[in-house]
Amino acid sequence: MTQYAFYFDQDICTGCKTCQVACKETYKLPAGNLYRRVLNYQGGAWERNEAGTYVPNGVFGYFVSVACNHCTDPACGENCPTGAMQKDPETGIVWTDHDACIGCKTCQTACPYNAPTFSEERGYMVKCDMCAGELERGRKPICVASCPMRALDFGPREELIEKYGDGDVEVEPLPQNTTDPNLILKPHREAQKSGSGTGEIVSLDEEL
Predict the structure, then answer these.
(1) Cα 203 from Cα 30, distance rounded (Å)
(2) In what order do the strands lie in the sheet with 200-201?
(3) CB 38 within 8 A of CB 63
(4) Which of 84, 98, 100, 115 sits in a 20 to 30 Å window from 198, CA-based?
């Protein structure tokens, strides 16, 4: 099996959300549904000193572009009561059988990355399938092709590791690794370790 994966260089991502918007527009996703999200993670504060000037105290910030990570041990598939969440044996892509999906949202609850979301319009769960249609045409996923900074890449996991290194998926605000996500992430220079962060997600609801 060839396990496909995403690569994300957090250090060069500007948070422009082109990947998020291009995906949403391509698949005509309704409000409240996204296949890829760009999270803004910030911490620290600006404090006034004795001179009355505001100075930074531990201020930091970075972005995380996250979609379904097509995990090696997908929690969505393991917990789906109808078998609607499937992992392709040839590509490792985790996809949703919409005919079998009953919209119970168990997969959303189980997924540590909150990748599946319920479509009120369609009546079933929706999520990233790595743009399977684009792959069949020999193209890369929409998010990867649209990134102006080339912070995203895609390909067989082993090839990405050979090109970029192992990376680290345990970066705030992402969770600790429990599902072996197929994401090669190059952390931001200010990135904090999952579970020990001092910041928070400041993305507004309307931005997602």
Answers:
(1) 19
(2) 54-67, 36-48, 200-201
(3) yes
(4) 115
Residue at token pair 């990570």: 69
pTM comes to 0.93
- The DSSP code for 193 is B
Pair of tokens at residue 80 = 């789906």
Q: pLDDT of 54-113, one tens digit each?
A: 877 889 999 999 999 999 999 999 999 999 999 999 999 999 999 999 999 999 999 999
Residue type, 3: Q
Q: Sort 177 into a burial class: Cβ within 10 Å, 0-12 / 13-18 / 19+.
A: middle
Q: How far is CA 21 from the centre of its chain?
A: 14
Sign of CA dihedral 186, 191, 192, 198: negative
Query: What value, to the nearest 5°, has the Cα angle with vertex 18 and ends 207 and 29?
Result: 65
Closest CA to 56 of 73, 37, 43: 43
User: Three-class SS of residue 15?
Assistant: coil
Hey, what's the torsion of the CAs at 10, 12, 13, 18, to 10 degrees?
A: -140
Six token digits for residue 148: 């102006």
**Cis peptide upstream of residue 156 (ω within 30 degrees of 0):** no
Percentage with pLDDT > 70 across the chain: 99
